[in-house]
């Protein structure tokens, strides 16, 4: 449930929702014939679509520059902006075209913020979200001047994030270069480390404690006992 001091509207009231449809694969090519074809989230960048790798000479559903593209098949809810003049979109995407283009960036940042809470329905093999479900997403809609203030702050954060990512990538390259220059005797990893595997801890045994229980995706609970003492990798 969303609580907002601004009016809540349904997404379908302020934007047109265009469901993607894939052309037959015989029309695909990598020779830049036709227009770029995008199928899903794997082609998303940080904010804008990555450069195309597939083109199609048969256009089924089209997205224009400035459209917000939403991933409608697992993972559901991720969004990107179309920076290209025209592209064809497949079944894994829907285009969201704002009635007022000045609202576009505000809407993108809001949908990006809530993407993990956008839930569709679970099918036999994967989750997906329908056009109707997208249309009914609730959006707080402040006046345009407030929207622009929010966008300006979001853009600042995006710039800081991009700068940080650039620094991380530069440092990774430095580390890789240093490691490539390492010479000398090679040893088996087991001869220089102590290796210990994790142990399963059922959810009903994860109690409130001071030691984090780590899973493959991070902390999954806490416990009053620990298995590994740091510092360790």
What are the key terms here?
alpha+beta, five-stranded mixed β-sheet, 233 residues, single chain, 4 helices
Task: Give a quick summary of the entry.
The protein has 4 helices and 15 strands. It is an alpha+beta fold and 233 residues long.
Describe the structure.
- With 233 residues, the protein is of the alpha+beta class.
- It is 24% helix and 23% strand.
- It has four helices and 15 strands.
- It has a five-stranded mixed beta sheet, with no helix packed on it. It has a four-stranded antiparallel beta sheet with strand order 2-10-7-8. A two-stranded antiparallel ribbon has the order 1-13.
- A hairpin with a 2-residue loop joins strand 14 and strand 15.
- The longest helix has 37 residues.
- The radius of gyration is 23 Å and the shape is globular.
- It starts with 7 loop residues before the first strand and ends in a 10-residue tail after the last strand.
- 18% of the residues are buried.
- The mean pLDDT is 92.
């Amino acid at each position: 449930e969303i609580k907002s001091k601004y009016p809540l509207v349904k997404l379908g009231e302020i934007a047109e929702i265009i469901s993607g449809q894939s052309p037959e694969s015989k029309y695909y090519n990598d020779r830049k014939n036709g227009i770029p074809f995008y199928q899903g989230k794997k082609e998303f960048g940080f904010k804008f679509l990555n450069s195309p790798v597939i083109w199609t000479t048969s256009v089924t559903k089209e997205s224009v520059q400035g459209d917000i593209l939403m991933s409608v098949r697992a993972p559901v809810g991720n969004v990107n902006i179309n920076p290209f003049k025209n592209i064809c979109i497949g079944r894994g995407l829907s285009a969201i075209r704002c009635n007022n283009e000045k609202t576009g960036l505000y809407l993108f940042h809001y949908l990006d913020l809530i993407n993990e809470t956008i839930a569709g329905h679970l099918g036999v093999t994967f989750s997906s979200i329908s056009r109707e479900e997208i249309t009914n997403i609730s959006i707080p809609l402040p006046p345009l001047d407030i929207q622009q203030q929010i966008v300006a702050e979001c853009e600042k954060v995006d710039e800081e994030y991009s700068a940080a990512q650039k620094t991380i990538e530069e440092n990774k390259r430095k580390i890789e270069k240093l490691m490539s220059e390492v010479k000398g005797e090679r040893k088996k990893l087991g001869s220089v480390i102590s290796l210990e595997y994790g142990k399963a801890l059922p959810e009903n045994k994860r109690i409130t404690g001071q030691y984090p229980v780590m899973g493959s995706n991070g902390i999954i609970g806490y416990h009053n006992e620990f298995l590994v003492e740091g510092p360790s990798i």
